[in-house]
Amino acid sequence: MGEPQRGEWARHWRFEELPGLDLLRARYVRHTFRRHSHEGFTLGAVSGGVEDVQLPEGLIRARPGTVVMINPEVPHSARAGDPDGWTYSTLYPSVGLIAAIADEVSTLRGTPVFGETIVEDPQAAELIKGVHRAAEAGNALAADSLLRVAVARLLGRHGSRLPPRGARPDSGSRTAALARAVLEERMADPPSLERLAGELGTSPFALLRAFRRAYGMPPHTWLTDARVRRARRLLDSGGTPAEAAVAVGFTDQPHLNRHFTRIVGVPPGAYRRERAGRLPASREDGPAGERPPAPAPDTEGTAPTGEAGSGARTPAPAAPRLSAPSRTTPPGGARKNVQDR
Predict the structure, then answer these.
(1) CB 181: neighbour CB atoms within 10 A?
(2) Residue 111: CB partners within 8 Å, gap ≥ 6?
(3) How remote is the C-alpha of 170 from its chain's centroid?
(4) What is the tens place of the pLDDT at every residue in 292-328?
(5) What CA–CA distance (Å, rounded) separates 59 from 76?
(6) Residue 308, burial from CB neighbour count under 10 angstroms (0-12, 13-18, 19+)
């Protein structure tokens, strides 16, 4: 794809001809993704370096020729597994898109999921990268075709059906679900753990255990992830990062910037500009256009505190169109375990 060989860059965008799909292509070296989950699926193909992905069942190492498949709502974090970082192309298809393809090409019924997290499949990896190349070149026919072939191949080889839930959830699951509902409703001004537990008639440690068991992360980590999700929806609908920060309960825009970048992979301004289809103000080093200031530490690790530049698209002299990936300053200094403490 003609990626630059130095520095970090990323482009997180949507191709309007492929509804129900987000795309991320990036090179990260010191960036770490904090623990989070997605409402839809994640299909990633590394083209250079090594990506370490921490999942509930353990650590996986994604190398060129492998495909990482993460089902909806599965908590995970990621970091470089090699000193030179990793370069990859990722597709984020919605549950509806995967279900529609499954209905057409497979015998799976109910909610389709992937039964494996990482597989050695160079052909599927090339198909995923091909979706990016075609979309960046504006070739809707090729992008849509390659997307469906890739998903059909992965479903046919690794797809399964989500098992039905138990007839009655236990008390811990019910408590966790109630806590989640409270946090969603009071996102901008959440209660303390002790107060939340008291409102639900349980103890703080019992609530912590139940919530982690149900959602794979403690309430405060889940809340940060939920705030970023809601901020994305606000940005998708045309809101500004400053407006989104206030609406979801972050103290200010830099606070949103830090957490948004650590979960989504690009700053909120670059994310919004891609949605708005604006042209970049300047472009350096090929696809670079987003240059946040140097990282500054926060209480949960290290992350950038602001953003500048642009992450929107401009045509490259030759296909594929590569001008849009955003450059991100490494959001972390020392390498840390990507799992939340």
Answers:
(1) 10
(2) 95, 99, 161, 162
(3) 30
(4) 333 333 333 333 333 333 333 333 333 333 333 443 3
(5) 10
(6) middle
Pairing, β 295-298 against β 301-304: antiparallel
Q: pTM for the complete prediction?
A: 0.79
Q: Which of 93, 88, 73 is nearest to 162 (CA)?
A: 73
Residue 309 vs residues 11, 21, 166: alpha-carbon distances, Å:
13, 25, 50
If one compares 1 and 152, the residue with the highest pLDDT of the two is 152
Q: Tell me the C-alpha distance between 310 and 268, whole Å.
A: 11
Q: Please write the tens of the pLDDT for every residue from 247-299.
A: 999 999 999 999 999 999 999 999 999 987 643 333 322 333 343 333 333 33
Q: Is the peptide bond before 320 cis (omega within 30 degrees of 0)?
A: yes
Q: To which H or E segment does residue 19 belong? A: none
Q: Name residue 138's amino acid.
A: G
Q: Which two tokens stand for residue 216?
A: 């794979």
Q: Where are the beta strands (DSSP E) in the chain?
A: 9-13, 21-28, 33-36, 42-49, 51-55, 58-62, 66-70, 76-80, 86-93, 112-114, 118-120, 159-161, 295-298, 301-304
The Cα–Cα gap between 290 and 301 comes to: 22
Amino acid at site 11: R
